[in-house]
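Input.
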Amino acid sequence: MKWVFWIAAATIVYAYVGYAAWLWFRSRWAPRPVRRGTLQPPVSAVLVVRNEETVIARKLQNLLALDYPPEKMQVVVVSDGSTDSTPAILREFGSTSRVKTLLKPESQGKALGLNDAIKLACGEILLFTDARQTIEPAALRLLIENFADPAVGCVSGELMLGDPADGETEKGMGLYWRIEKKIRELESASGSVPGATGALYCARREMLEPLPAGTILDDVL
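Output.
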C-alpha cells in the first residue's frame, strides 16, 4: 500500500507547493492585467442575516456611509427567521429610501435568502457581505474600478484581521491564512479566482444565477 501513501503525499505537496508554483510561473509568463477605470454604476449591497441584533445596525450604518454616491447605493437585507430584535431594527432602517428589507418568519437558509434579496435589488453590480465585518469607506469604489474591464465578472475584497486604525491588520493571521492570501493574489494575477472572500465581494448582476437550496458556499464561483 506504499503507492497510496505516495499518492496522498504528492497530492498534499501539490496543494500547498505545486499549485502555488504553477500560478507563480503562469502569472509571469502569461499575466492578465485588469483594465481599471473610474465608473459609478448603480450598486445594491445584499446580505442575509439571522439573529444579528448586536451588529446589524452598525453594519447598515457602515454600508450607508461608504464612499459612493448615495443615489447609486442601495442596501437590501433579508432576515432569515430571526427570533431576536433583528426584525425590529430592520423595520427602522426600512423606512429609508435606500434600504429595502424582507422579514421571513421562518428560516429557509442563506441561499434562498440571497435569491430573494437579489430579486429586490436594483443595482447593476451586487455587493455581497456579511453582518459582522466592517467595510473600509473606499473599498466599494476600489472594487468597482475593476468592472471597467468588460472581461471582469466578479471582484473579491480582502479580509483583514485586526484593527486597521491601529495598524494591526496582520495580527492573528496564521500560516494557513497567509498562504491562502498569497495563492489568491497569484490566481488574480493569472486572470481567474475560483473563490471570493465571503465577507466582501462584488459581481455583475447579469452573470448571476439563482442559488440551489442548501448551498453552503455562495462565494465559490
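The chain has a mean pLDDT of 82.
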